[in-house]
Design brief:
The protein is built from 29 helices and 20 strands. By secondary structure, the chain is α/β, with parallel strands linked by helices. Helix 4 crosses helix 5, helix 12 crosses helix 26 and helix 20 crosses helix 25. The C terminus is likely disordered.
Length: 701
């Protein structure tokens, strides 16, 4: 196995007349680890000794000014100069410092840039404080500096969302002072810094204004205590980690209402608390797990083919979303339908989605027009002759999909990659309908496909390495998180969801009610419980699937037989007034009737049992998935559930959660519930019971 080595970090100093240029090179992304911080501190001290230097420009590489702190230092002992100390030294430097930002300036990298006295950026630069996505908050003055540069409202939005912004937005906000579009970006930055100096040195230059002393953009918020809490109320409701979000609000509030120094003290205390928290540990796990998904076994990324023309079969909700995702990423796409009216309806919906995004400000009208122009429609499979990749997004029926792939085999090039968007069905059975099954695999998108990050890339028994690499590369090009999985009913996510669904149904029969079950799961951190989610999707969809498979879910089936299909009919597990739901006495009567018909004695069920019955069987199924090789690593399962099923990121995913509470504890509780309910599927698997756990293949280690 090869390893990547990087050159020794350096902070090179070059002098250009009165301006000293510090160029930081610490591949791959100029992370601000201890050695890099010391290099920068030494460079500043060296420049301080030269009285002829009247300005400093600090820059990085084309790829990164700095991507932020070294995450591997979190939770450990820091030696040498800390990042807050380096930020203070830069801010207090006696001559003006300009941060010249190319590539990314994120987290601690942006805090360093904000400590400079001015900022210039390359047109393609990206800036942000994404710490909240790791369960922490800025820890080197970011919660105090950003409001002073962009204003309280924008700072609250950026910090609580972790949102990154481009150069044009940064200029609009006041975070960047100038855009320098030059082939020699560093040289242009030096010239810009020199142009701001008086023609001759003198007392008029004075000490540069520090960011902490700029109060004009926070004056109103400082004069009206409670403003930050008011601005944060909406973002707090949407926060993926409420603990980190509340800590960030507290730090921002202190920095504005009590002054910069008080805010910095609060920020550092809260930062250290969050770094040591279980929520941050969970999100560091996810960060590492997502990076690991990029290197599945047997993947040769260099063999991926470029996709110059794609096609989507089906113009429904899923097909239209996939087509929009492709077009947004610059890929021309042909949408195939069987009837003109269905094609027209689907393309019109895509156009409406684009128009909505324009009204929300996430696209310009010109961008929407350009992206829609990349989508064409046809009723003729012969128009797919030039397609490099086709994604089938038709009705979830094996015979329908087999027929489509037979037609694709006859109308596409022999090297065209053929992907099915099936969420449950046998990819190998679909692949068997074409002459070369090696060009077939699954690409399971999640709805809405143009928004949701996850794609389960399903490697079939005969999928070639190039086919796999091409699908994974396309997923990344679309801005998705592709996770490679194996073939089984439901793959990883839906297979585990089905287990949870069976337990949720059983809980209703035994004595729980839908609102009680949903409240337990939302209390754990999910945005929606299983029954509200089922109502939103439509209960009739699952009913049709169960009918075709000869299976049943007594309560859900009874609701459907009563014409209660969820939100679309105004009643399901809950009653609806528009989208507002409420507990429904009629649902309770139906549940109690079905329980009696099943011969089940209803009982009071506590929240702890409900949570265990919903989550621990999922973990158990995850253990089976690992043993079968359907998922390569426990972290792959966690990424799938966080990215595709709204498992709360600050809980780390189902397999991480099992580690956090203890595998032995999960196993013991599963044994208890198996014996109490008679459900032998709850017996714990080897991943939970083997001494020392099991490896990714399910073998004891």
């Amino acid at each position: 196995m090869s390893t990547t080595t990087h050159p020794t970090p350096q902070a090179a100093i070059t002098v250009h007349g009165p301006v000293a240029l510090i160029t930081l090179e610490a591949p791959p992304v100029n992370a601000l680890g201890q050695s890099v911080r010391q290099l920068l501190a030494n460079a500043l001290e060296e420049i301080r000794a030269h009285q002829a230097i009247r300005a400093v420009v600090l820059t990085g590489t084309d790829r990164a000014f700095s991507a932020g702190a070294d995450i591997t230092e979190f939770g450990g002992t820091t030696t040498g100069i800390t990042l807050p100390e380096l930020v203070d030294r830069l801010e207090d430097f006696p001559v003006p410092v300009t941060a010249a930002i190319a590539g990314v300036a994120l987290g601690g990298g942006l805090e360093l840039a904000m400590a400079a006295h001015s900022r210039v950026a390359h047109p393609d630069a990206t800036l942000g404080l994404p710490e909240i996505t790791l369960g922490i908050i800025p820890g080197a003055g970011g919660t105090g500096m950003l409001p002073r540069l962009v204003g309280a409202e924008r700072a609250v939005d950026m910090i609580l969302s972790g949102r990154r912004i481009g150069t044009n937005t940064a200029v609009e906000y006041g975070l960047v002072d100038a855009v320098l579009d030059s082939g020699d970006f560093a040289g242009a930055a030096v010239a810009w810094a020199a142009s701001r100096l008086p023609a001759t040195p003198g007392p008029t230059e004075g000490a540069p204004t520090r960011t902490r002393d700029r109060t004009e953009k926070i004056a109103d918020a400082a004069a009206r205590p409670g403003t930050i809490a008011e601005l944060a109320s909406g973002p707090l409701r949407k926060a993926k980690d409420p603990y980190a979000a509340r800590a960030a609000v507290e730090a921002i509030t202190a920095g504005i209402e009590e002054g910069f120094d008080a805010g910095a003290t609060a920020e550092r205390r809260l930062f250290l608390e969050r770094v040591a928290s279980p929520e941050a540990a969970a999100q560091r796990h996810l960060f590492a797990a997502e990076r690991a998904t990029r290197k599945p076994a047997g993947l040769d990324a260099t063999s991926a083919r470029d996709i110059g023309q794609a096609a989507v079969i089906g113009a429904g909700t899923m097909g239209g979303g996939i087509a929009l995702a492709l077009a947004t990423s610059g890929v021309p796409v042909i949408v195939v339908e069987t009837r003109q009216e269905a094609l027209d309806r689907g393309l019109a919906q895509v156009r409406r989605n684009l128009d909505v995004s324009v009204s929300h400000g996430s696209r310009t009208s010109g961008q929407a027009d350009e992206q829609f122009a990349r989508i064409t429609g046809t009723l003729d499979y012969a128009d797919l002759a030039a397609a490099d990749l086709v994604i089938e997004a038709a009705f979830e029926d094996l015979d329908v999909k087999k027929d489509i792939f037979t037609r694709l085999d006859a109308n596409t090039r022999p090297d065209t990659v053929l992907a099915t968007n099936t969420s449950y069905l046998d990819v190998d059975a679909i692949a068997a309908t074409v002459a070369d099954p090696g060009r077939v695999l699954g690409m399971h998108f999640f709805s809405p496909a143009n928004v949701m990050e996850l794609v389960e890339v399903v490697r079939g028994a005969r999928t070639t390495p190039q086919t796999l690499a091409t699908a994974v590369a396309l997923g990344r090009r679309l801005g998705k998180c592709p996770v490679v999985v194996g073939v089984c009913h439901g793959f990883v996510g839906n297979r585990m969801l089905e287990v949870r669904g069976r337990q949720a149904e059983a809980l209703l029969l035994e004595g729980a009610l839908p609102g009680q079950v949903d409240d337990v799961l939302t209390g754990f951190g999910f945005r929606m419980g299983p029954f509200a989610m089922a109502d939103m999707a439509g209960l009739d969809i699952g009913w049709r699937n169960r009918t075709s498979q000869g299976t049943s879910a007594p309560v859900s089936d009874a609701l459907c037989e009563a014409g209660r299909f969820g939100q679309k009919t105004g009643s399901g597990f809950f009653a609806y007034d528009g989208r507002e739901r409420s507990d429904d006495p009629e649902t309770t009567r139906i549940i109690e009737r079905v329980s009696a018909e099943q011969g089940t004695d209803r009982r009071d069920i506590g929240s702890e049992e409900i949570l265990e019955r919903l989550l621990y069987p999922m973990v158990n199924e995850g253990g089976r998935i690992l043993a079968e090789g359907i998922a390569e690593r426990p972290g792959d399962i966690d990424v799938i559930w966080v990215k595709g099923y709204n498992w709360p990121a600050y809980r780390g995913g189902p397999m991480f959660h099992a580690e956090a509470v203890g595998r032995a504890h999960v196993a013991e509780r599963l044994v208890h519930h198996a014996e109490a309910t008679g459900d032998e599927t709850l017996r714990p698997v080897a991943w939970l019971t083997a001494p020392g756990g099991v490896d990714g293949a399910g073998a004891p280690r």
